[in-house]
Amino acid sequence: MGSWFRRRGSIAWIRKKGSVCGQQQEGYLHEHDPQPKRDVMNNLTTRIFATDQAELDAAARVLAGGGLVAFPTETVYGLGVDARNSDAVARLYQAKGRPSFNPLIVHVGSIEAAKQFVEFDHTALVLAQAFWPGALTLVLPLRRDSAISPLVTAGLETLAIRVPDHSVANGLLAAFGGPVAAPSANPSGQVSPTKFAHVRDLMTGRIDGIVDGGDCGVGLESTIVATKPTPTLLRAGGLPVEAIEAALGYDLALAGDTSAPSSPGQLASHYAPAGTVRLNAQTVEAGETLLGFGPVDAALNLSPSGDLIHAAARLFDALHQLNAMGAARIAVSPIPDHGLGRAINDRLRRAAAPR
């Protein structure tokens, strides 16, 4: 992906030594470990926060103290930590069971706030002004004077950053007053949460708090674009690629090898339900449960009318429901590969990938 994706120092050394900035990171992932060195004990008291200002102030104090707080955005629920606190970020990786080579997205409240941490070129500024706040993450060169923990960037010289378009998320960011690193609030590789109940059921006991902000409107993670060396789509998401290309006046390049992710959401297997997934199913085989799209008879249907916006908002909740139903084999109807359909198909391909 060019010089902007060189790694800062040796992240392998960081993982092998298990320390950052002289602080021991107990249980942090080693270079070849697929899982943390020890399991997270489900023994934390997880506080549920409401969305009034006093409660958001309380949640912000938990973040300031190094705690992990899940909160809603317009895309999915995020699991937030202070992006400057390496101890807190290490706890986040452990709570999720997330590989340490997979970088995190930092959430801030404005373009001006983002400029404290990354360097904007002309293309980045055009996109930020057009789509922030919103479901677009930009991968930009990290400022040398940035206070962001190297664990957030996985040792890269870039930072994934966005401004969310959600009143609760923005209220929490304002109350906290700093950058919040926040991947999806679920165990790594599993289905992303779009409802409070999803987070409660998956993460209670693993994290310090959850802000109950109801359902997420978009229902898919943000679209991720790197602007250097060439504007490149790294992940399809809640902002249609066509809108970005229209704003730029040209097509985005496509990311290549993702064995060493340059942004979140690039792992081959991700967003996976418990059952196996078969895509583009025209018929349903014995023992399969159909996740439909359009006018088909299905156990669950993302959108009987074929509306891609509705389908995107329902996708992850439908996969959670299929888990609750005990669906061991899931067949998925064909979904058009344009607009938000491109992001839906991206998530489904990763859900269907070998695990």
UniProtKB/TrEMBL annotation:
Reaction(s) catalysed by this chain's protein: L-threonine + hydrogencarbonate + ATP = L-threonylcarbamoyladenylate + diphosphate + H2O
InterPro entries xref list: DHBP_synth_RibB-like_a/b_dom, Sua5-like_dom, Sua5/YwlC_C, Sua5_C, T(6)A37_SUA5, TC-AMP_synthase_SUA5
Binding residues annotated for L-threonine, in chain numbering: 75, 107, 162, 182, 222
Enzyme superclass (EC): transferase
Domain YrdC-like: 53-239
UniProt subcellular location: Cytoplasm
PROSITE patterns: YRDC
Pfam families per the UniProt record, alphabetical: Sua5_C, Sua5_yciO_yrdC
Keywords: ATP-binding, Cytoplasm, Nucleotide-binding, Nucleotidyltransferase, Transferase, tRNA processing
Source superkingdom: Bacteria
Sections of the chain in a coiled coil: none
Record GO terms (molecular function): ATP binding; double-stranded RNA binding; L-threonylcarbamoyladenylate synthase; tRNA binding
GO cellular component: cytoplasm
Enzyme Commission identifier(s): 2.7.7.87
UniProt family annotation: Belongs to the SUA5 family.
Biological role stated in the UniProt entry: Required for the formation of a threonylcarbamoyl group on adenosine at position 37 (t(6)A37) in tRNAs that read codons beginning with adenine.
Name of protein: Threonylcarbamoyl-AMP synthase
